[in-house]
Write a structure and sequence with these properties.
There is one protein chain. This protein has helices at about 80-95, 160-165, 230-245, 285-290, and strands at about 5, 15-25, 25-30, 65, 70-75, 105, 115-125, 125-135, 150-160, 190-195, 200-205, 210-215, 255-260, 265-270, 275-280, 295. With about 300 residues, the chain is of the alpha+beta class. A 10-stranded mixed sheet has the order 1-10-11-12-13-14-15-9-8-7. A two-stranded antiparallel sheet has the order 2-3. A two-stranded antiparallel sheet has the order 4-5.
C-alpha cells in the first residue's frame, strides 16, 4: 500500500602571589606576578567538562599536558572559552595529513560531566575522524580513545572530478509524487512515500537537494530503543530539518536512517564539487545535530 505522510567558551588567573613581610618598622611589599596559563593542548588532546551546570554540548573545558598513558589532567578552571574549543578542533584538523579539503563540526554533543576525544585516520585523498566521549580525559589518537562511547564519525574524500564525487552518493533518488496513488499532506508542503514489505517500512521524501529515507522495522521489538515508531521518527527528522540548516549539497545529498536495533545507523552524505562528505552515527538525531554544525569554512 502506498501513501504519503508529511514529515517535520585557568587561565589560571595568574594569581599574583603577594608576600608581605613586616620587619621591625619597615614594610616591604613583594609580588610575584607569575601564574600559569593553560599549556598548549597537544595534537592529541581531549577536553574536560565545563563547570557550569547545564552545559551539555560542544567542546568543553581545558586540558593540560598528557601522560604517556593517554590520560589528560583537566584544568580545574572550569568551562572553556570558545577560543579554546576552536583550538582543539584546529588541532584535530592539524592531525589530518591529507590533500582533501577538511571539513569538521564546530561542536559536538558531549554529555554533561563527560569528555571529548577522537581518533583520526588520513590518506592523501581522504580523512576520517571518529569522535568519542569518555568518563575521564583521554588523548586523541591514544590507545584508549576508541574505548569511549561513540558520538559520530566524519569522513571526507576528494575525487578526480565532480561526476565521480556525485556517483559516491549512494541511494539518491528523486521522488515523483505522480508515481503514487495515495498521499497524506501533513503540512509545510512536505510529502513522504511509505512502502512496507518483508518486515520493513520505508518512508522517503525529498527536501531541497536532499533525499531522506527512514528504514524502520514494522515490529517495534526490532526498532531502536527510544524510537519505537518509524513514522514518528520520520516526522522528527523532518521537523529538525525544518528548523536547522544542513550543508547545501553541490549537487546532491542523502540522509539514510536505519531504525533497526541490531543494525541501526544514520548516514548523512553530500557532494561539494569534487569532494563528498559523510557523517555517521548510531543515533539518528545526534547525526543530524553534527551535520547542522559542520564548519564549511574550516580546512587546510
Amino acid at each position: 500500500m502506498k501513501k504519503f505522510i508529511h514529515i517535520e567558551s585557568r587561565k589560571m588567573r595568574g594569581a599574583a602571589a603577594i608576600v608581605l613581610s613586616v620587619l621591625l618598622t619597615a614594610a616591604t611589599g613583594c609580588s610575584a606576578p607569575g601564574g600559569r596559563g593553560v599549556p598548549p593542548v597537544s595534537q592529541a588532546a581531549s577536553v574536560s567538562p565545563a563547570s557550569a551546570p547545564g552545559v551539555s554540548s560542544g567542546l568543553r573545558g581545558g586540558s593540560s599536558a598528557a601522560s604517556d598513558g593517554g590520560s589528560v589532567n583537566p584544568d580545574a578552571g572550569g568551562g572553556a572559552s570558545s577560543r579554546t574549543r576552536q583550538s582543539v578542533l584546529d588541532r584535530i584538523g592539524a592531525a589530518l595529513d591529507t590533500k582533501a579539503p577538511v571539513v569538521l563540526p564546530a561542536s559536538l554533543p558531549v554529555g554533561e560531566g563527560r569528555y571529548l576525544t577522537a581518533t583520526t585516520v588520513s590518506q592523501p585523498e581522504s580523512y576520517q575522524v571518529n569522535f568519542y566521549e569518555t568518563d575521564q580525559p583521554v588523548e586523541i589518537d591514544s590507545q584508549t580513545a576508541s574505548q569511549g562511547t561513540p558520538i559520530a564519525s566524519v569522513e571526507g574524500t576528494e575525487y578526480p572530478d565532480a561526476p565521480s564525487a556525485q556517483k559516491s552518493i549512494a541511494d539518491y533518488r528523486q521522488v515523483n509524487a505522480s508515481d503514487y496513488d495515495e498521499f497524506l499532506d501533513l503540512g509545510n508542503r512536505l510529502k513522504a512515500v511509505t512502502q512496507a514489505g518483508l518486515g520493513h517500512e520505508h518512508i522517503f521524501w525529498n527536501e531541497g537537494r536532499w533525499y531522506v529515507e527512514v528504514d524502520s522495522a514494522i515490529d517495534p521489538a526490532f526498532q531502536i530503543k527510544g524510537y519505537p515508531d518509524g513514522e514518528r521518527l520520520a516526522k522528527d527528522v523532518a521537523a529538525y530539518l525544518d528548523g536547522h540548516m544542513l550543508p547545501t549539497p553541490k549537487e546532491i545529498g542523502t540522509i539514510l536512517v536505519k531504525n533497526w536495533n541490531q543494525s541501526s545507523g544514520t548516514a548523512v552524505q553530500w557532494q561539494d564539487g569534487r569532494a563528498s562528505y559523510q557523517i555517521g552515527g548510531k543515533d539518528p538525531m545526534t547525526a543530524l545535530k553534527v551535520a547542522a554544525v559542520m564548519d564549511l569554512k574550516r580546512g587546510k
